[in-house]
Amino acid sequence: QVTLKESGPGILQPSQTLSLTCTFSGFSLSTYGMGVGWIRQPSGKGLEWLANIWWDDDKYYNPSLKNRLTISKDTSNNQAFLKITNVDTADTATYYCARITAILPYYVMDAWGQGASVTVSS
Amino acid sequence: DIQMTQSPASLSASLGETVSIECLASEGISNDLAWYQQKSGKSPQLLIYAASRLQDGVPSRFSGSGSGTRYSLKISGMQPEDEADYFCQQSYKYPLTFGSGTKLEIK
Lengths: 122, 107
Hints:
The complex is a heterodimer. Chain A is mainly β. Helix content of chain A is 0%, strand content 55%. By secondary structure, chain B is mostly beta strands.
């Protein structure tokens, strides 16, 4: 059974760095073709893809967040991480991590975590 | 970036009714299109991938079709548990992009 769970600070102030952790089970990020993605959703709004990291440590970022994002992984502890620097109120959202599975030639986000709510407020 | 234009933004359907939701990509995405269902307060769940492949465990009343730039999700026989938000998403090119969503309610 595949499970993912996001954790984060809950509340932080503008200009701080947001650090999120995705702890997962039921798969390994060292397996060929496997990946983890981060997606966020402001309350009542749509979904925005943020970043992906792959089994081979390849990384992709949403350029709309410019250089504020850093994605990483700890394969031995089944965790993936996302950092967002210099947050402001527009970063207030629920943050999801999702497993990405290779069903070649497609890559599919087939399992999602429950989400971590993050509020940026002074 | 590939823009995903999803329609309608909302719709209501009677139980047993067949409903369709559409996504139009700003360029061809070679069937690299997924549909997700998100119930209130929950995380998105994968319904369809590769435009028409049903994810394991998803009821067969859900189906996907399309090609090129036009894709659709059909629910054949609306059920109470289908009341949710639905999103399309392309994985053809980075950055990955989602449609704006469709809110489906029971009439």
